[in-house]
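Record 1 of the preview.
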Amino acid sequence: MVVIIYSIKTVAEKYDVTYDTLRYYEKIGLLQDIKRNSQGQREYSDANLNSLNKIIHLRSLGASIADCQQINELLGDSDITADDYEQGLKLLDKLEDNLNKRIATIEQQKQFLAEKKHRFTKERDILRQNKMNGEGIKL
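->
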């Protein structure tokens, strides 16, 4: 089995995060088991990237750092209980509700934008038509 090792630079670029973010996630225990080479530089494994990918997705869904830590704690043990999954599901439901609210807001913004574009197009076309007809806009 070939083990691929990634530098902090590669990981930061791949996930569009800063070095400080990666170091912070490691410091607070969200990213665990980050190995160091002989020069003390971080070396990320595929398992580390899988953990980071989960964190990035949770954060983009609106999860707080505490939410991410809670999920790690709930599902990180080998003795996961039905109650752990229940708590995890409640957290995921909360994230889904927040996401649905954000989607609704974006849909409203899209509607507003479409209405503005329609109005601008209409006004532009009127101005062009007036210009073609030799009529100017009288102020």
